[in-house]
Design brief:
Layout: H1 4-16, H2 19-24, E1 27-31, E2 46-52, H3 57-68, E3 81-85, E4 98-107, H4 108-117, H5 119-125, E5 132-133, H6 136-139, H7 149-152, H8 157-166, E6 168-177, E7 180-189, H9 192-215, H10 223-231, H11 240-251, H12 261-282, E8 285-290, E9 323-326, H13 330-339, E10 343-346, H14 363-369, H15 371-378, H16 391-406, E11 413-418, H17 420-431, E12 448-454, E13 457-460, H18 464-475
Parallel strand pairs: 2-4, 3-4, 8-11, 9-10, 9-11
Antiparallel strand pairs: 1-2, 1-5, 6-7, 8-12, 12-13
Helix pairs in contact: 4-5, 8-12, 9-10, 9-11, 10-11, 14-15, 16-17
Length: 480
């Protein structure tokens, strides 16, 4: 089909106006090559993510029927057939003159679980706007990507290497038994053609996923730029562009199968994993801590104008810390002395927010005396406290601290003992949310929040429990 742009527009409009999709779903989103390929024959399939409130067999069958009923002739595709692939994973159905809809259906809890288990896949998906209903990141976002995800997630080093060795791919499919839905893991043995195509897929998404972590954003690169920029990371990756381009030629049917090429892919994945481990371990580790509690941590606005000392000494010591930065206030300095015997350095850049005339007030007292602050918060505006600071002021202090103390540091393990609002602002950066929402984060006293430093940026290294807990807090997530 020559008019690919018109095909995209017509298909999107068809789905957008479908009565059943609007009635049954919370969100419908097309992702992947549908938006980038210039010829319909280049589509491996049309990846479509469907989110419903609560999934059952009836809803599932109704949605699958919507896609099965699509008529290719309506879009000028005479002689084409429709196949619906309802599985989860990179299972492909490559046939000539076939429109393949890869329809992945989740309920809201299922989408949340998928974000947790497969953060890279969901991060890629949420870059696209929805056709019906909410955007995916509005339902449950994948963010605060961690370097450790590349090893632990479903589509990381371990799972990819296992698939390559088995000459197969793993995927999942629903089984409906009475009223229970089971997501069953399956193995699909690949023929020669699909082994090459899957090897190409593995290298492509390993590179894209690593870029997403280190830059903490989705990087849009064509294949040549992707592999060339990635191979610049380390000399051990110098053979990657040739290998990747050869696989790309085979995938597009312009190249021939080569003996030993798939073994080279396994070797390359191993080289990438070795390089990545070195890269990860060589990045400075910075751990932020909220100070231990004080007698004034009673719900009042305790800022930089009050200087109580801590009232307990319960903190897990860390002998690996080489230098520990604190604010100028007693509660952080006392906490740091208990945390480690390393060198200490204090800076006002890490001080708690300056609440000015609101220092020591309760929320109700703030509302009574400075109602304009509450009104601004209700409109999601960042307002400066009278005689004090705004969240953006704290944000700028935090950026300056990183620039002055972390960027050129020779230390590899760094501790930072600071305050509630400073860490809330840090988490807002990690989760890519407005500063005005950071008040939702509930930071525990003495909690360790780690990250790595790379080229001017902090890359979060939260535990999975932290990432879930903090994400649920700012979303005000409740079990659906």
């Amino acid at each position: 089909m020559s008019d690919i742009k018109n095909f995209r527009i017509q298909l999107v409009e068809h789905l957008k106006n479908n009565h059943l999709l609007n009635q049954l779903t919370q969100s419908v989103t097309i992702v992947g090559s549908f938006y980038t390929k210039n010829d319909i024959s280049a589509f491996s399939d049309i990846d479509t993510i469907v989110i419903v409130q609560k999934l059952n067999k009836y809803v599932y069958d109704q949605i699958i029927a919507v896609f099965n009923s699509i008529s290719p002739e309506k879009f000028g595709l005479s002689g084409y057939q429709v196949i619906v692939n309802p599985t989860f994973g990179p299972l492909k159905f490559n046939q000539e003159k076939t429109l393949v809809f890869h329809v992945m259906i989740y309920d809201i809890l299922g989408h949340r679980k998928h974000v947790i288990d497969s953060p890279f896949t969901c991060y890629e998906w949420q870059q696209h706007g929805s056709i019906v209903g909410k955007k995916l990141y509005e339902i449950y976002p994948s963010n605060a990507l961690s370097l450790m995800d590349i090893s632990a997630s479903r589509r990381g080093f371990l799972s990819y290497r296992e698939d390559l060795q088995k000459e197969a791919l793993t995927y999942r499919a629903y089984q409906f038994i009475n009223d229970e839905i089971i997501e069953e893991k399956k193995l699909f043995v690949l023929d020669t053609r699909h082994q090459y195509e899957y090897a190409y897929h593995i290298l492509k998404f390993l590179m894209k996923n690593i870029f997403s972590i280190v830059y903490q954003k989705h990087i849009f690169l064509d294949d040549d730029d992707l592999v060339n920029q990635f191979s610049d990371f380390d000399s051990s990756l110098h053979s990657l562009p040739k290998l990747y381009n050869t696989l790309g030629e085979i995938k597009s049917n312009s190249g021939k199968y080569q003996d030993g090429l798939l073994s080279k892919v396994q070797e390359q994945v191993h080289l990438i994993s070795q390089w990545f481990e070195r890269f990860h371990n060589n990045l400075p580790l910075i751990s932020f801590y909220r100070h231990l509690s004080t007698d004034l941590n009673d719900g009042r606005f305790l800022g930089s104008l009050s200087d109580p000392d801590i009232n307990n000494s319960i903190i897990e010591k860390d002998s690996s810390i080489e230098i520990c930065y604190t604010s100028t206030l007693k509660r952080t300095k006392s906490t740091a002395n208990l945390l480690s015997s390393c060198q200490k350095s204090e800076t006002p850049l890490l001080n708690e927010m300056n609440y000015g005339k609101a220092e020591g007030l309760t929320y109700e007292e703030l509302k009574s005396n400075f109602g304009e602050i509450i009104e601004a918060w209700e409109q999601h505006l960042d307002i400066r406290f009278p005689g004090g600071e705004s969240l953006e002021d704290v944000n700028k202090r935090l950026d300056l601290f990183v620039e002055e103390n972390i960027r050129y540091s020779e230390h590899k393990v760094i501790g930072v003992v600071t305050h509630n609002v400073v860490i809330r602002v840090l988490l807002a950066k990690f989760f890519s949310i407005p500063l005005t929402l950071c008040y939702k984060f509930q930071i525990r006293h003495a909690e360790k929040i780690s990250c790595r430093y790379w080229k001017g940026s902090l890359i979060p290294e939260l535990t999975n429990e932290q990432r879930i807990r903090y994400r649920d807090q700012y979303l005000v997530w409740t079990e659906q």
